[in-house]
Design a protein that fits this description.
By secondary structure, the protein is mainly α. It has seven helices and no strands. The protein has one domain: Phosphate transport system protein phou homolog 2, domain 2 (Methane Monooxygenase Hydroxylase, Chain G, domain 1).
Length: 234
């Protein structure tokens, strides 16, 4: 993943941490899939699996950060190597937060299962579309991070806007349901909670894309316009 160094041991350490970050990403992706399956099937068993897996995600985050701190302390890297390690640490934190969002979805599913069936009358299937978009964006961000691909990173930043539009449209639709039938308010608020969790997954994928540009170009592009970001990458 990173450029070759004079120290092959340093290369090995960087590659080892990178592999662990990708492993964490795979675990978090599986959490998202399980959480959405739990929602689509109203499966308590699947929801409970997601909740139980959260401990593993948290433990991996701590282990990865400990290893990164050790490498920085022993190797005292500079320039791009230091940026890479910092980006790995921030990516790990964002993946852990994606795991948190998956757990929130799972816990809400468990709550919904105990309630009336009114939520089944609402457009819950549209959440799965948004979840597929968010999960795909996360996978794309991890692939781009593994290759330090800034072109793909820029496309991810643009695609996140699509998830935001899906979320806004979904919220408007829920408001319409609640206005037309107040009996749907409780179930609609549950779906709104789920939709926000999915939208945040897309935000974390966007953050990872910004870290890629930071590593390669040495520029922090957070909170900047798309035009400015494209100028940095060119």
């Amino acid at each position: 993943m990173p450029d070759k160094h004079l120290s092959s041991q340093f290369d090995s350490e960087l590659n080892g941490v990178s592999s662990r970050v990708m492993e964490l990403g795979g675990l978090v992706e599986s959490q998202i899939r399980a959480a959405m399956y739990a929602l689509s099937q109203f499966s308590a068993e699947a929801a409970n699996r997601v909740v139980e897996a959260e401990a593993s995600v948290n433990a991996m985050e701590v282990e990865i950060d400990r290893e990164i701190s050790s490498i920085i302390g022993r190797r005292q890297p500079t320039a791009r190597d230091l940026r890479l390690l910092m980006a790995m640490s921030k990516t790990t934190a964002n993946l852990e937060r994606v795991g948190d969002e998956a757990e929130k979805i799972a816990r809400m599913v468990l709550s919904i299962i105990d309630k009336s069936g009114s939520i089944r009358m609402l457009p819950a299937s549209e959440l799965r579309v948004a979840a597929d978009l968010a999960s795909g964006l996360l996978r794309k961000a991890l692939d781009a991070f593994a290759r330090l691909d800034t072109i793909t990173a820029v496309s991810i930043l643009k695609e996140d806007d699509e998830i935001d539009k899906e979320f806004d449209g979904f919220v408007r639709k829920l408001i319409t349901y609640m206005m037309e039938d107040p009996r749907t308010i409780s179930a609609s608020l549950d779906l709104l909670f789920l939709a926000k969790a999915i939208e945040r997954i897309g935000d974390h994928a966007k953050n990872i894309a910004e870290f890629i540009i930071y590593v390669v170009k040495g520029e922090d592009v957070r909170h900047t316009s798309m035009e400015a970001i494209e100028s940095v990458v060119r």
